[in-house]
Amino acid sequence: MKKLISHFNFRLKQSIRLLNLNPRISIPALMFSGALIAVKLPENFYYPVVFFILILLFHYERKDIPFLKKAFVQSWRGIIVLEAAVLYSILLVGNIHYTIEKVGLCSYLIILSLAFITPRTRPMATMKWNFLPDDLFEWRSFLRKNTWMAVIGFIIVLLSSYHPAILILVGTFMLDYISHIYEPQENKEMLELYFKKYSLKEKIRKNSLFFNTLLLPTYCLFLILNPAESVYLLYYFVFMNLYFLLILSRKYKNYNHKNKNSDYNMGVYLEYFLCCMTIIPAAFMLKSNIQAAKQNIRTYVGD
In this structure, are residues 137 and 187 in contact, taking their beta carbons and an 8 Å threshold? Predict the structure, then answer.
């Protein structure tokens, strides 16, 4: 028992340490936790289904099985089940709208099977995404490395159309990940070759079109599910596009061939997020960014 208590104490301290050291994870984690507590679903039995899916994802991604086998030689399978059951219980009890029912209780029996389901040990096969044009090379590079994460993210964004508050909340999560797509900087030879063929205006137009094409199913589904709340969708559209354009223009505004990335951080995220909330400051900032980006590109490519 003492060993088990020490293990869970270690898990708690490990989680707190990870959240303290990585604001990029901790801020979304706190927002996501708030959503899990406050969101009301149309049917009570939806909660255990959603929470069980989260537990499956957690189990599928865990990489500490060798550690558990060494620390708990005979009972490591039981530790896996116990950890999953504790997390599942926290999720069930944490939501203020959920009341205990049979689907939630029966899910504990399914959790027992996790002891015999092996998490993945090798990366899953990913697509090459070669069909994306050169204008979208940042997306192509990101999707090659994060195919399955992107698919899951797309599904989450699509499901967020269920309610205006969820739509906006999920959108704020997504913006941080979108920002990292444009963080890496290409070398100056590639930059020169690209902008001798295309203009910054074309780059912005084609990337914006692709971005909104990805969001189009969410737009349509939201209008179907919430036709009386279309004003939220209009605000969402303007907000998301302003932020996206600010991040894209910032990349070339700050481009320097000596740097491998654009030094994106949480400060940039919060600055652009607040500006986009009020719209007008973001519009002025976008105009300034585009002008500075054009001038910076001109120093590498010429007129």
Answer: no
Beta-bridge mates of residue 261: 184
Sign of the four-CA dihedral 270, 274, 276, 280 = negative
Alpha-carbon torsion (184, 188, 190, 194), positive or negative: positive
Contacts 24+ apart (CB under 8 A), 232-238: 232/164, 232/167, 232/168, 233/167, 236/167, 236/168, 236/171, 237/212, 238/279
What sign does the dihedral 237-239-242-248 (CA atoms) show?
negative
Give residue-wise pLDDT tens across range 2-51. 778 888 788 888 777 776 666 656 666 666 777 778 777 778 888 888 88
Distance CA 182, CA 175 (A): 11
From the centroid of its chain, how far is CA 106?
Answer: 30
List, in order, residues 6 or more apart from 153 with CB less than 8 Å away: 174, 177
